[in-house]
Amino acid sequence: MRTMIQARFSWGYFGAIVPAVFNFFSSEGFLVINCIIGEQTLASLSSRFDDTLGVISLIVCGYRVIHWYESVAWIPNVIAFIAMLAIGYPQLSENLSAHIPSATPAHIMSFASFLASNIIGWCSTIPDYDVYYSPDASSHLHQCQLHLDLFLSKKVTGQALGAALAAAAPSMPAWNARFDNNSSVGGLLHSVLLPTGAFGKILTAVVALSISGACAPSIYTCSNSFIAIIMWFAAVPRWVYILVSEGILVPVAIVGAKRFYATFLDILNIIGYCTSVFFAIILAEHVRFRRTSYSEVQYPIAT
């Protein structure tokens, strides 16, 4: 079942309207962040571009096309990550000797909360895609694949590399200038790849355009959440809600690009609060009342 439809088991038919609304805005916030990063990355390629250069992604083909696209969209990012690590390694190794203040308990808790919110944020999205899995598929294999993806590809490689480059930027004037006071992720990416010349520019452009790979599932979830708010909304073609999502996304991303860091924090707060409440209720209901069973006896679809 779709995420917000399945939520009716724990929230109730009318109560599930609340998480459906919040999930729409949370997904929209994630889209805004992705769009801003894509704008900044493209803008870093030329002084003729600015942060209002939009990256617009309209997904109107359904899940099968999204699944195919996602299966190949990761390739340029992997190439870019390897190139950034190879080129930036000398600077990263020099930064190892830099003085780092001791972490306080507050810092540790904040960092742990950030990592946890990244994982929990997927709980209101993933069932929209798991619904296409065959009932005969191994649940254990699926869980292993899912955790390998979330923890290895997103947490270990992506965030660790990004954190390392951002930490090294203050000691590298060329990187720090393009990082623009911690507010231009795209500028930092391009500055690391700059020594490779045209190849680096091509990689930067391809990575910027691959942002649509992150936007596609979120737009898909936005449309599904909209349909779950009121049953009459299901009569409207899904592509209409995609246009509504884009109509909200473009102006907000253009404005937010001028104050990226503040916008980033505001959106993360919204996503974190909404998904944490949703996750806690779903988990308590599944463990306490459904006895951790996924059978149709516990989740009668007919009702």
Keywords:
303 residues; mainly alpha
Textual characterization of the structure:
The relative contact order is 0.20. It is globular, with a radius of gyration of 21 Å. The chain has 303 residues and is an all-alpha fold. It has 13 helices and no strands. Helix 4 crosses helix 7, helix 4 crosses helix 11 and helix 9 runs antiparallel to helix 10.
Oligomeric state of shown chains: single chain
Give the helix/strand class.
mainly alpha
Tally of helical runs: 13
Which sequence of SSEs, written as H and E, runs from N to C? Answer: HHHHHHHHHHHHH
Give the integer mean of the pLDDT values: 76
Helicity level: over 70%
The radius of gyration computed from the alpha-carbon positions, rounded to a whole number of angstroms, is: 21 Å
Q: Choose one word for the global shape.
A: globular
Q: What's the number of extended β-strand segments?
A: 0
- Beta-strand percentage range: under 5%
Major β-sheet annotation: none
